[in-house]
Hints:
Helix content: over 70%
Oligomer: single chain
Number of helices: 6
Amino acid sequence: MDWTVLVVIGLAAGVLAGMFGIGGGVVIVPALAYFARMSLPTAIGTSLGALLLPVGALGAWAYYRAGHLNMRAALWVALGLFLGAWVGARLSQSVTDLTLRRLFAVFLAAVAVKVWAG
């Protein structure tokens, strides 16, 4: 696996995270599955591993300095992410790769329709 592909995936996800607050599920997972040819469970696990470190710290700092970061809300969301990621990881281990791919596709389509419709 070419490390430059992985760095480009990370850069793209970082730019989109800074612009729109997205990255892991919408950018990194599909990119790892398509460009790095990982299975979906491996792409999900790799995305979570990459996000484990203080990803977003510089972006959050820029928003904080501009007065656009609600730290209290961010900490509550972080608690939910902490617990929810564990629950989601356990659930994803109980379904087949095909089922997980289909669920992921439905999720992405639903998000796209919601964004498009406003």
